[in-house]
Amino acid sequence: MFTTRALARAGIIAALYAALTYVFAPVAYGPLQVRPAEALCILPIFFIEAIPGLFVGCALANFLSGYGLYDIGLGSLTTLVAAILTFIIGLLLRRSLLSAILGGIPPVILNAVVIPFVIILGDAETPMAAYWTMFGEFMLTQSVWVYALGIPLYFAVKRLREKGVKALL
User: In 3D, which of 34, 31, 32, 57 has the Cα closest to residue 44?
Assistant: First the structure.
């Protein structure tokens, strides 16, 4: 199904996601996440292979989270579902600016809904009452990474594709 180039692209996306998260490891996990790798969640608009790349990269990154199988499983599945939805939005809106804006919604909302549960399940000391606070924190931090870094990434990839640059794009 995937060409060699597409498989390489998926691997590069996975490696970038994991490496960017590991670099920020002291602050990449928990309620206030500094996770610039989330900007890569815009890539399914352009590449179907970004879907498994983001899933694998997130799974690898979540091995360090401290929330165990909850984060490796639920966190990675959340990224997978968000990537699929972003891809569908990209198809429907034909890679327009609107697709970048709407394509960022699934990773922001899904992570804000699911990841507080991952933290609560993975840390017995975190009370369930903290869910809504963490929900708000994730809406804010995810929005920053997905939009503040993801939109410039969207334009960079779009510009390279328009110029006919083939090197992994």
Answer: 57
